[in-house]
Amino acid sequence: MEALVSDILAEMTLAEKIDQMHGIGFLPVDGLWHTADNERLGIPGFSMVDGPRGVGIYAGTATAFPVGMARGATWDPVLEERVGGAIGREVRAKGGSVLLAPTINILSHPRWGRAQETYGEDPHHLGRMGAAFIRGAQNYVVASAKHYALNNIENTRYWVNVSVDERTLREIYLPHFRMAVREGHVGSIMSAYNRVNGHYCSANFPLLGQILKGDWGFKGFVESDWLFGTWSSDESAMAGLDIEMPAPIFYGNRLFAAVAKGTVPEETIDEAVRRILRVKYCFGLDTDPAEPDPKEVATEEHAALALEVARKAIVLLKNDGALPLDRKYIESVAVIGELADTPNHGDNGSSTVAPPYVITPLEGMRNRAGDIRVDYVVGNPLSADNRAVIAGADATVVVAGLTAEEEGEAIIPGKGDRVNLGLPAKQEQLIAAVADLNPRTIVVLEGGSVITLESWLPRVEAVLMAWYPGQEGGNAIADVIFGDVNPSGRLPSTWPRSEEDLPAFVNDRSQVAYGCYHGYLHVDREGIEPRFPFGYGLSYTTFAYAKLTLSAQTVRSKGTLRVGADVSNTGAVAGEEVVQLYVRCTGSRVDRPVRMLKGFMKVFLTPGETRRVLFDLPAEELAFYDVAVGDWDVEPISYTIHIGPSSRDLRLSGSFTVDSVEAHR
Ligand code: BGC
Fold first, then answer.
1. 156 Cα–ligand 1 center, Å
2. Where are the chain's structural domains?
3. Residue 316: φ, ψ to 5°
4. 303-526 adopts what CATH topology?
5. In terms of Cα–Cα distance, which of 416, 349, 465, 470 is closest to 54?
6. For residue 640, what is the enclosing H or E element?
7. pLDDT at 661
8. Quick check: is 225 catalytic?
9. Could you please report the per-residue DSSP string of 246-293?
10. For a pLDDT cut of 70, what percent of the chain falls above it?
11. CB-ligand 1 contact for 244 (6 Å cutoff)
12. How far apart (Å, rounded) are the C-alpha atoms in residues 240 and 396?
């Protein structure tokens, strides 16, 4: 491969090389953004399309999967690999060769407008889910992990400068990108709009040249984010930006002039083109080009996968016994709220998908209700008739939540982030009014991340978080409500009682500073009781944990510890548990989080069944980044393993130490 690339490169003129390094138009053509073909040398161009929850709307109809955050809530990388595969297959069937996904930015604050696109707040969880998506997608096309890096605010995304210290960067904001490279073997990385430590991400040598390409050995190419994503020719080229998208403003003629002037050496251009060609030939763009094939898009198979994912993503947050509704004892259900009858599958920005249909919660309830009467009440305001229907029903299901009105991408600069974490006031009032009329009130929430719910939570019997559940969402919601599916989603972020319990979200300044502590790292450190902790979610069955074993009391710094635990289903129905492994260290010479997630596994158990769950924990995972040395350090200290069903429900614990490296030299 390298020899082939070198041979072609040797044939190319400077102009031909630079032609490879930019998109060719602001607007998509045939639903795709293109880079140029080179007919003389037979080099194919790239054809790029979004995105994270299905093929982007400008390429026409496609399957709408649940959003990334919903898929994060499945804690199921095997399933996520299938989703990546399905989206990759549809991209290819649209004639595309590069999928502009997954979004793997840390959810550092749940008010981020694009929270829904990513998988959650924890780097390990995010990295595993992202790498799985990439592996699936790259069976068909090149995946592009985005947005590198620290793109966690919408309103100021085009200009904000994020200051971050080296440790925070390496330990919190980059590990998942490293996993995309090392474990997912991602072919491409999209640089972010924002600046980091004074430089735009598209012209940021520490991020691109030093860390991504140097430290991690990334062999693919970096493309800029779209309009306003590139700001320079020389600086960007020297920093390691390989492709300017979607059209040449700073690359093209200006880059040519920079090489002619000698401010950018031709070797730098060669290095970029080598990366671009390498990906093209590795992915067979020349020998096996994508051919449009409508039969492969929005298939029944993909609809079934969208349903499976939506079911597994639903998190049961509260259940005082209302759920599941038993068809034997229920004659009528009142479904309430505007969102119950609204197709609501997420943001209207670049991640928008045009599915062939969307099953709303109301339709889903009607599809699954059997002989049960389903009445619909829009609500707000409630008429006397509405009140009678609600009071007379055996159960009520209020569908509430957010829409693209409240959260989304900053297509219009200065907009996109949420203004608070609560539901719109009208909806809170509706929930309270319904709960006053009917004691059996179930709330179904839709949205991209955290929703604070203190004012109404005690008044309702059950709450489900359904996220933006994709085209099959309504069916999945009804399946869980009627108990045909046992909920197994777990929160991929911390749900605080109020926004004050989180670090401040600063989205109105051109300068912000990020620290090490957000989400569960923050509430654990501050001793704050969250409403629902990271990793939390209920089930219709119960699970018990026993027999923790550690393969050794002492592990070498390059060794691996094997951790085992028995998990049993102690209830009456089959279900899936997400077994989580957290590590705490004692005696570190630097400030460390109380504990961090280092492993998780989703296991299916029939009633009475016990399974032994095994984790391999490489000691390297315990390292902190030693800024003075410029390297990772696995300290020879004591570590405690905690295993349990959430970050605040740690059922089993055991300790071990890491041997000092010197002792084994
Ligand atoms: C978004 C990217 C997206 C690109 C192309 C940008 O505005 O930030 O995530 O891939 O547009 O649609």
1. 15
2. 2-295, 303-526, 543-658
3. -85, 110
4. Rossmann fold (3.40.50)
5. 470
6. strand 638-644
7. 59
8. yes
9. SS-SSSTHHHHHHHHHTSS-HHHHHHHHHHHHHHHHHTTTTTS-----
10. 99
11. no
12. 56
- CA dist 572 and 324 (Å) reads 13
Pocket test for ligand 1, best of 33, 55, 225 (most atoms within 8 A of CB): 225
Buried b (16+ CB within 10 A) or exposed e, 532-567: bbbbbbbbbbebebeebebeeeebbbebebebebeb
| Buried-state track 180-191, b at ≥16 Cβ within 10 A, e below 16 | bbebbbbbbbbb
At residue 283 the predicted structure's pLDDT band, cuts being 50, 70 and 90, is: very high
Edge to edge, what strands does the sheet with 652-658 contain?
Answer: 554-555, 652-658, 638-644, 575-586, 596-605
Question: Helix, strand, or coil here: 631?
Answer: strand
Q: Is 576 in the pocket of ligand 1 (CB under 6 A)?
A: no
With cut-offs at 50, 70 and 90, classify the pLDDT of residue 660.
confident
Please answer whether residues 497 and 454 qualify as being in contact, where contact means their C-beta atoms are separated by less than 8 angstroms: yes
Q: Is the CB of 235 under 6 A from ligand 1?
A: no
Give, rounded to a whole angstrom, the gap between the first and last alpha carbons of the chain: 39
Ligand 1 atom closest to Cα of 151?
8
Q: What is the mean pLDDT of residues 555-573?
A: 97
* Torsion (CA) 91, 269, 180, 52 in degrees, nearest 10: -30
Residue recorded with tokens 């330990």: 171
Cβ 472 under 6 angstroms from ligand 1: no
**Over 80: is that where the pLDDT of 665 sits?**
no
Please tell me if the CB atom of residue 350 comes closer than 6 angstroms to any atom of ligand 1.
yes
Q: Which residue has the tokens 């038993």?
A: 326
pTM value is 0.98
The whole-angstrom separation of Cα 470 and Cα 52 is 12
Which protein residue's CA is at the shortest distance from atom 11 of ligand 1? 226
Ligand 1 centre and the CA of 240: distance in Å? 20
Q: Is the CB of 517 under 6 A from ligand 1?
A: no
Report cis status (omega within 30 of 0) of the bond before 324. Answer: yes
Q: Is the CB of residue 224 below 6 angstroms from any atom belonging to ligand 1?
A: no
Residues 359-385, mean pLDDT to the nearest whole number: 97
Could you give the CA distance from residue 163 to residue 150 in angstroms, rounded to a whole number? 10
Which listed CATH number (2.60.40.10, 1.10.3860.10, 2.30.110.10, 1.10.645.10) goes with 543-658? Answer: 2.60.40.10
Give kind and range of the element (H or E) at residue 175.
helix 175-182
The pLDDT-based confidence of 414 (bands split at 50, 70, 90) is confident
Q: How far is the CA of 226 from the centre of ligand 1 (A)?
A: 6
The CATH superfamily label for domain 2-295 reads Glycoside hydrolase, family 3, N-terminal domain (3.20.20.300)
Q: Of the residues 19, 225, 242, 479, which is catalytic?
A: 225
How many angstroms separate the alpha carbon of residue 145 from the centre of ligand 1? 12
Joined together, the tokens standing for residue 32 give 């795709």
* 351 vs 245: CA distance, rounded Å: 17
